[in-house]
Amino acid sequence: MSVREVDTLVIGAGAAGLAAARTLLEAGRDVLLLEARERVGGRVYTHHADGFPVPIELGAEFVHGSPPEVWTRIAAHGLTTWQAEDRHDVARSGLVEQPADDVWSEVGELLGALDPGADDRPVAAALAAVRPAPSAEVLRWARGYVEGFHAADIERLSTRSLLDAEGGGASGSDAAHRVLDGYDAVVGALAAPLDATARIARGVVVHTVRWRRGEVDVVGVPRGGRTELAFRARKAIVTLPLGVLSAPPGAEGAVTFDPHPERWAEQLPGLAVGHVVRLSLRFRETWWDPGISYLHLPAAESFGIWWTPASIRAPLITAWIGGPRARDMTGIGTMELTARALDVLAAELGVDRGRIGDLLVSAHRHDWSADPYARGAYSYITSGGTGAPAQLAEPIDATLYLAGEATAESGASGTVHGAIASGVRAARQVLTDRARRP
After folding, report:
1. pLDDT at residue 437 in the model
2. Residue 367 pLDDT more than 90?
3. How many CB atoms lie within 10 A of CB 146?
4. Which pTM does this prediction carry?
5. Together in a domain, 32 and 157
6. I want to staple 393 with a disulfide (CB 3.0 to 4.6 A). Which of 127, 220, 313, 407 is the partner?
7. What CATH code is carried by the domain that includes residue 195?
């Protein structure tokens, strides 16, 4: 078995891996990026439907706030964006109206009442301790927002990390934009110079990483094949999603590290994998009020949050479930999910189920929890685990480096800009460690 040797290997061509490999390439380093899929981007995954005016995102969709990691690339490559409208409508008993009681303001006040200086504890416990106690309705909306937006179980989510995220550019209250060219245009721009110099090996499923100080041996197979492929480097940057890093040995997509870094074993339990279900429905016409941006269905047991491309008018609406309910729906097929979603819309909006079923053109969804190379949506920090990302971001013996949104700085976990920043950070660690080598 021949062995391909390079200076640095990067494992995983999501946003973090692409950013790491590109940073090393621009520094003149010999780098190779290994990716199990035939595409790059990881959990950035865009579907472009022929003749349809807007991209259909299957993964990351929004640019929240003004993170330079994303916006500088949007500007440099001449990409077009549009700002999402921030109108929130509620459907009750077939009537759609904007919430007159300004429940979002009350939710914001409730989250603002959480004490960032208190001992860290699960969000559910912190909310229960707020005095005066909020109403059951505000608590229900707060839980729905936190579990939906952060894809987290509030019985486990760290209160301190939630407050960091809400104040650190990963909040649902930040102005949100979409990329008209598709979010895949951002990762495509990152990948372009790597592709031009043949630095990305697609379809390589890594299963073993053996290492010692100053030497890394990586073994994988072609996707769908059995012939082993071998690679050797002085250093490796690992950008695998948390769900893959935590996968049991022998599971599809799992990677064995020999030896397994002790720090990773200590710190990974401080993080958890979040789960989402997102389903985008394309219709022949916009049959709902075209001014609707976000639609809340508080009486629905599932698919209680929806959004449209507003301010662009297009016959597309996306259903979203985050947190434990999404985890429990892993493996349900797209056809069944679509039927459930149409049932919910018809019942809660008071429209004819047969009519909207007839208007449906297509349904689009990727099951990230069932995807062996993702095993979930994005990460969150559990109670008591706020130090885990920083610890995981520290190099192991100047040989192994970990990047990805799970290792992002405070407030940026679960975001594309956090992933990009972590990849750049890991690459700079590689360059600094090399410069210090005696």
Report:
1. 46
2. yes
3. 26
4. 0.95
5. no
6. 407
7. 3.50.50.60
